[in-house]
């Protein structure tokens, strides 16, 4: 039985999938103008094409992401981020070890590193080390992101019930490109958004700044250190907190004060 193996996810791969179907149909003596259909769908159904060239999408310039999930979703989201949205993918990975060769082939040239593992702790350590602007992964990566104060868009199983909306929200085809573009754009913390939410009472600051992926129990934040940490804009606070804790551990410091924060800043600046 004739078949196509290309997944119609994203503008580029959806068009290629349609072209492959058209070739199969042509072999049965049926001629169709798939290019006209692709052009119409790209211009009038999918809003992702024009959005990727809009001034709003330029907010993603310089953003970095990590992608992890099942082989198909992780590979396609990686290509969409790099090729269609202009986001740098620091690492793309999958827990589908049996699809490792296919996965590497699909994402070649679209990311800096590749991770094939079914150990979620290894994924967590990688995310903590690379400190991306956003994560696109499973429910496990979403929990890791919460602990590190890094936003996460869920793209793959295992997922939570909240990722099964009652409304129509496809991932495939041209309407799917709109949903994916929304997911990607809204997953990033853009500009001063987080800082403004904090000013107007949108976040519980104490809850956010005390979260950490570190399992060290002998590291304590003194009131003075926490006071200094609160002054830092929310969208960079998580990174400052992690860098300060790393400095403290390397120098055998068990209590982080305001002075320790300034020392950590000086050390990083050198």
What does this structure look like?
The chain is of the alpha/beta class and 270 residues long. 51% of the residues lie in helices and 10% in strands. The chain has 13 helices and 7 strands. The chain has helices at 11-26, 34-45, 48-51, 71-84, 100-107, 120-130, 139-148, 173-187, 193-199, 205-209, 223-230, 234-250, 258-269; strands at 64-69, 88-94, 113-116, 134-137, 152-154, 220-221, 255-256. The strands form 2 sheets. The chain has a 5-stranded parallel β-sheet with strand order 3-2-1-4-5, sandwiched between helices. β4 (134-137), α7 (139-148) and β5 (152-154) form a beta-alpha-beta unit. The longest helix is centred in the C-terminal third of the chain and has 17 residues, at 234-250. The chain is elongated, with a radius of gyration of 22 Å. The N and C termini lie far apart (64 Å). Mean pLDDT is 86; it is low at 201-212.
Major pleated sheet: 5 strands, parallel
Poorly predicted runs of 5 or more residues: 201-212
Number of helices: 13
Strand fraction equals 5-15%
The overall pLDDT average reads 86
The ordered string of helix (H) and strand (E) elements is HHHEHEHEHEHEHHHEHHEH
Spatial ordering of strands, largest sheet? 3-2-1-4-5
The overall strand count is 7
Percent range of helical residues: 40-55%
Query: Which value, in Å, is the CA radius of gyration?
Result: 22 Å
Shape type: elongated
Distance between the termini: 64 Å
Q: What class, by secondary structure content?
A: alpha/beta
